[in-house]
Amino acid sequence: MGLLQPGATSMNAVTIPRELIERLAAARRVAVLTGAGISAESGIPTFRDALTGLWANYDPQELATPEGFARNPRLVWDWYAERRARIAAVRPNPGHLALAALERRFEHFTLVTQNIDSLHQRAGSRTVVELHGNIARVKCSREEIVVGDFALDESPPRCHCGAYLRPDVVWFGEMLPAGAMAQAEEAAEHCEVFLSIGTSAQVYPAAELPLRALSSGATVVEINPECTALTRHAHFALQGAAGEVLSQLQEKLASA
Q1: Which residue in 10, 60, 75, 189 has the fewest CB atoms around it within 10 Å?
Q2: Which of 87, 33, 50 is nearest to 224 (CA)?
Q3: What is the DSSP letter of 105?
Protein backbone atom coordinates (compact mmCIF):
# COMPACT_ATOMS: atom_id res chain seq x y z
CA MET A 1 0.00 0.00 0.00
CA GLY A 2 1.31 3.43 -0.90
CA LEU A 3 0.52 5.18 2.35
CA LEU A 4 2.05 8.47 3.43
CA GLN A 5 3.50 8.97 6.86
CA PRO A 6 0.99 10.08 9.51
CA GLY A 7 0.47 13.83 9.56
CA ALA A 8 1.54 14.39 5.94
CA THR A 9 -1.15 16.85 4.96
CA SER A 10 0.54 19.58 2.95
CA MET A 11 1.16 19.36 -0.76
CA ASN A 12 4.91 19.68 -0.22
CA ALA A 13 4.81 16.38 1.66
CA VAL A 14 2.69 14.53 -0.92
CA THR A 15 4.51 12.37 -3.42
CA ILE A 16 2.53 10.92 -6.30
CA PRO A 17 3.94 7.39 -6.65
CA ARG A 18 5.24 6.47 -10.09
CA GLU A 19 3.38 3.16 -9.84
CA LEU A 20 0.08 5.02 -9.48
CA ILE A 21 0.78 7.12 -12.57
CA GLU A 22 1.67 3.97 -14.49
CA ARG A 23 -1.55 2.25 -13.46
CA LEU A 24 -3.61 5.28 -14.46
CA ALA A 25 -1.78 5.62 -17.76
CA ALA A 26 -2.63 2.01 -18.59
CA ALA A 27 -6.27 2.19 -17.47
CA ARG A 28 -9.28 2.39 -19.76
CA ARG A 29 -11.96 2.48 -17.06
CA VAL A 30 -11.79 4.90 -14.13
CA ALA A 31 -14.42 5.59 -11.47
CA VAL A 32 -14.40 8.45 -8.96
CA LEU A 33 -16.35 9.12 -5.76
CA THR A 34 -16.34 12.63 -4.34
CA GLY A 35 -17.65 13.92 -1.04
CA ALA A 36 -18.04 17.17 0.86
CA GLY A 37 -14.28 17.68 1.16
CA ILE A 38 -13.79 18.71 -2.45
CA SER A 39 -16.65 21.24 -2.28
CA ALA A 40 -15.36 22.61 1.03
CA GLU A 41 -12.31 23.84 -0.90
CA SER A 42 -14.66 26.09 -2.87
CA GLY A 43 -16.08 27.50 0.36
CA ILE A 44 -19.23 25.38 0.58
CA PRO A 45 -19.86 24.33 4.19
CA THR A 46 -21.13 20.87 5.02
CA PHE A 47 -24.79 20.54 5.95
CA ARG A 48 -24.17 20.81 9.68
CA ASP A 49 -21.53 23.53 9.29
CA ALA A 50 -24.14 25.59 7.44
CA LEU A 51 -26.36 25.65 10.55
CA THR A 52 -25.14 29.08 11.64
CA GLY A 53 -26.69 32.46 12.28
CA LEU A 54 -30.48 32.32 12.17
CA TRP A 55 -30.34 28.56 11.59
CA ALA A 56 -28.03 27.66 14.48
CA ASN A 57 -30.82 26.53 16.78
CA TYR A 58 -32.58 24.27 14.29
CA ASP A 59 -32.43 20.51 14.42
CA PRO A 60 -31.32 18.96 11.08
CA GLN A 61 -34.34 16.69 11.39
CA GLU A 62 -36.53 19.77 10.98
CA LEU A 63 -34.72 20.91 7.83
CA ALA A 64 -33.84 17.76 5.93
CA THR A 65 -36.55 15.15 6.42
CA PRO A 66 -39.90 14.55 4.74
CA GLU A 67 -41.52 14.84 8.16
CA GLY A 68 -39.91 18.23 8.80
CA PHE A 69 -41.10 19.46 5.41
CA ALA A 70 -44.63 18.24 6.11
CA ARG A 71 -44.66 20.12 9.42
CA ASN A 72 -43.17 23.37 8.17
CA PRO A 73 -42.69 23.50 4.39
CA ARG A 74 -41.89 27.21 4.36
CA LEU A 75 -39.07 26.84 6.88
CA VAL A 76 -37.46 24.06 4.86
CA TRP A 77 -37.93 25.87 1.54
CA ASP A 78 -36.36 29.06 2.91
CA TRP A 79 -33.40 27.14 4.34
CA TYR A 80 -32.66 25.54 0.99
CA ALA A 81 -33.23 28.79 -0.88
CA GLU A 82 -30.51 30.41 1.23
CA ARG A 83 -28.15 27.48 0.66
CA ARG A 84 -28.89 27.56 -3.08
CA ALA A 85 -27.96 31.23 -3.24
CA ARG A 86 -24.69 30.63 -1.39
CA ILE A 87 -23.74 27.75 -3.67
CA ALA A 88 -24.55 29.72 -6.82
CA ALA A 89 -22.00 32.34 -5.74
CA VAL A 90 -19.00 29.97 -5.52
CA ARG A 91 -16.84 28.57 -8.28
CA PRO A 92 -15.29 25.18 -9.04
CA ASN A 93 -11.84 24.78 -7.54
CA PRO A 94 -8.69 23.16 -9.01
CA GLY A 95 -9.90 19.74 -7.85
CA HIS A 96 -13.08 19.98 -9.90
CA LEU A 97 -11.13 21.26 -12.90
CA ALA A 98 -8.53 18.49 -12.65
CA LEU A 99 -11.24 15.83 -12.62
CA ALA A 100 -12.83 17.36 -15.71
CA ALA A 101 -9.44 17.22 -17.42
CA LEU A 102 -8.90 13.61 -16.35
CA GLU A 103 -12.27 12.59 -17.79
CA ARG A 104 -11.16 13.63 -21.26
CA ARG A 105 -8.23 11.23 -21.07
CA PHE A 106 -10.05 7.96 -20.41
CA GLU A 107 -12.30 5.85 -22.60
CA HIS A 108 -14.69 5.18 -19.70
CA PHE A 109 -14.82 7.66 -16.81
CA THR A 110 -17.65 7.85 -14.27
CA LEU A 111 -17.73 10.54 -11.59
CA VAL A 112 -20.03 9.67 -8.69
CA THR A 113 -20.68 12.49 -6.23
CA GLN A 114 -22.38 12.80 -2.87
CA ASN A 115 -22.46 16.58 -3.36
CA ILE A 116 -25.53 18.52 -4.48
CA ASP A 117 -23.84 21.68 -5.78
CA SER A 118 -23.30 21.08 -9.55
CA LEU A 119 -19.66 22.19 -9.27
CA HIS A 120 -18.45 19.15 -11.18
CA GLN A 121 -20.73 19.97 -14.10
CA ARG A 122 -19.78 23.64 -13.94
CA ALA A 123 -16.11 22.61 -14.12
CA GLY A 124 -16.78 20.66 -17.32
CA SER A 125 -17.35 17.09 -16.11
CA ARG A 126 -19.81 15.28 -18.35
CA THR A 127 -20.58 11.88 -16.83
CA VAL A 128 -21.69 12.81 -13.30
CA VAL A 129 -23.82 10.51 -11.17
CA GLU A 130 -25.57 12.47 -8.39
CA LEU A 131 -26.27 10.15 -5.47
CA HIS A 132 -27.86 12.83 -3.28
CA GLY A 133 -29.62 14.92 -5.91
CA ASN A 134 -29.04 18.53 -6.90
CA ILE A 135 -29.99 21.62 -4.93
CA ALA A 136 -30.50 23.62 -8.14
CA ARG A 137 -33.46 21.42 -9.10
CA VAL A 138 -36.91 21.27 -7.54
CA LYS A 139 -39.47 18.51 -7.76
CA CYS A 140 -43.07 17.87 -6.82
CA SER A 141 -43.36 16.49 -3.30
CA ARG A 142 -46.23 14.26 -4.44
CA GLU A 143 -45.40 13.16 -8.00
CA GLU A 144 -41.59 13.16 -7.59
CA ILE A 145 -41.09 14.77 -11.01
CA VAL A 146 -38.65 17.62 -11.61
CA VAL A 147 -40.36 20.96 -12.28
CA GLY A 148 -38.66 23.71 -14.26
CA ASP A 149 -41.08 26.63 -14.02
CA PHE A 150 -42.67 27.77 -10.78
CA ALA A 151 -43.80 30.94 -9.03
CA LEU A 152 -40.85 32.71 -7.45
CA ASP A 153 -43.05 34.74 -5.08
CA GLU A 154 -44.32 31.69 -3.18
CA SER A 155 -42.50 30.01 -0.31
CA PRO A 156 -42.72 27.20 -1.13
CA PRO A 157 -44.26 27.29 -4.60
CA ARG A 158 -46.77 24.68 -5.68
CA CYS A 159 -46.78 22.15 -8.48
CA HIS A 160 -49.56 22.18 -11.10
CA CYS A 161 -51.12 19.32 -9.12
CA GLY A 162 -51.38 21.54 -6.05
CA ALA A 163 -48.69 19.87 -3.96
CA TYR A 164 -45.73 21.81 -2.64
CA LEU A 165 -42.47 21.79 -4.54
CA ARG A 166 -39.35 20.71 -2.65
CA PRO A 167 -35.61 20.58 -3.34
CA ASP A 168 -34.57 17.63 -5.49
CA VAL A 169 -32.15 16.33 -2.86
CA VAL A 170 -32.07 13.19 -0.76
CA TRP A 171 -33.18 13.84 2.80
CA PHE A 172 -32.44 11.81 5.92
CA GLY A 173 -34.46 8.62 5.86
CA GLU A 174 -34.95 8.62 2.07
CA MET A 175 -33.57 6.10 -0.38
CA LEU A 176 -30.91 7.11 -2.89
CA PRO A 177 -32.12 7.30 -6.50
CA ALA A 178 -32.15 3.68 -7.67
CA GLY A 179 -30.87 4.46 -11.15
CA ALA A 180 -27.99 6.57 -9.85
CA MET A 181 -26.92 3.95 -7.32
CA ALA A 182 -27.05 1.19 -9.92
CA GLN A 183 -24.90 3.24 -12.28
CA ALA A 184 -22.41 3.95 -9.48
CA GLU A 185 -22.18 0.29 -8.51
CA GLU A 186 -21.62 -0.79 -12.10
CA ALA A 187 -18.83 1.76 -12.53
CA ALA A 188 -17.17 0.60 -9.29
CA GLU A 189 -17.35 -3.05 -10.22
CA HIS A 190 -15.93 -2.61 -13.73
CA CYS A 191 -13.26 0.06 -13.26
CA GLU A 192 -9.52 -0.54 -13.22
CA VAL A 193 -8.78 2.46 -10.98
CA PHE A 194 -11.11 3.93 -8.34
CA LEU A 195 -10.49 7.35 -6.76
CA SER A 196 -12.16 8.21 -3.44
CA ILE A 197 -11.86 11.96 -2.88
CA GLY A 198 -12.86 14.17 0.04
CA THR A 199 -15.20 11.70 1.67
CA SER A 200 -15.17 10.24 5.17
CA ALA A 201 -15.98 6.74 3.85
CA GLN A 202 -18.58 6.41 6.61
CA VAL A 203 -21.86 7.20 4.83
CA TYR A 204 -23.43 4.10 3.29
CA PRO A 205 -24.24 2.94 0.71
CA ALA A 206 -21.74 5.31 -0.99
CA ALA A 207 -18.94 4.13 1.32
CA GLU A 208 -19.36 0.64 -0.08
CA LEU A 209 -18.37 1.71 -3.60
CA PRO A 210 -14.57 1.71 -3.12
CA LEU A 211 -14.85 -1.64 -1.36
CA ARG A 212 -16.77 -3.02 -4.35
CA ALA A 213 -14.02 -1.74 -6.62
CA LEU A 214 -11.40 -3.31 -4.38
CA SER A 215 -13.11 -6.70 -4.37
CA SER A 216 -13.36 -6.53 -8.17
CA GLY A 217 -9.61 -6.11 -8.51
CA ALA A 218 -9.37 -2.37 -9.08
CA THR A 219 -6.59 -0.15 -7.81
CA VAL A 220 -8.16 2.00 -5.07
CA VAL A 221 -6.77 5.48 -4.40
CA GLU A 222 -7.83 7.72 -1.53
CA ILE A 223 -7.27 11.48 -1.58
CA ASN A 224 -8.19 13.11 1.70
CA PRO A 225 -6.55 15.43 4.26
CA GLU A 226 -7.03 12.87 7.03
CA CYS A 227 -7.13 9.12 7.43
CA THR A 228 -10.55 7.49 7.09
CA ALA A 229 -12.06 4.03 7.39
CA LEU A 230 -10.91 3.42 3.81
CA THR A 231 -7.25 4.38 4.28
CA ARG A 232 -6.01 0.98 5.44
CA HIS A 233 -7.68 -0.72 2.47
CA ALA A 234 -6.48 1.65 -0.25
CA HIS A 235 -3.54 0.80 -2.49
CA PHE A 236 -2.52 4.48 -2.43
CA ALA A 237 -3.61 7.01 0.22
CA LEU A 238 -2.56 10.57 -0.62
CA GLN A 239 -3.11 12.90 2.31
CA GLY A 240 -3.70 16.48 1.22
CA ALA A 241 -6.19 18.92 -0.22
CA ALA A 242 -8.04 17.49 -3.21
CA GLY A 243 -7.35 20.50 -5.41
CA GLU A 244 -3.61 20.33 -4.87
CA VAL A 245 -3.23 16.56 -5.09
CA LEU A 246 -5.48 16.15 -8.12
CA SER A 247 -3.78 19.00 -9.97
CA GLN A 248 -0.39 17.39 -9.41
CA LEU A 249 -1.70 13.95 -10.38
CA GLN A 250 -3.27 15.29 -13.56
CA GLU A 251 -0.08 17.10 -14.56
CA LYS A 252 2.11 14.05 -13.98
CA LEU A 253 -0.29 11.85 -15.93
CA ALA A 254 -0.34 14.32 -18.83
CA SER A 255 3.44 14.12 -19.10
CA ALA A 256 3.64 10.35 -18.64
Answers
A1: 10
A2: 33
A3: T
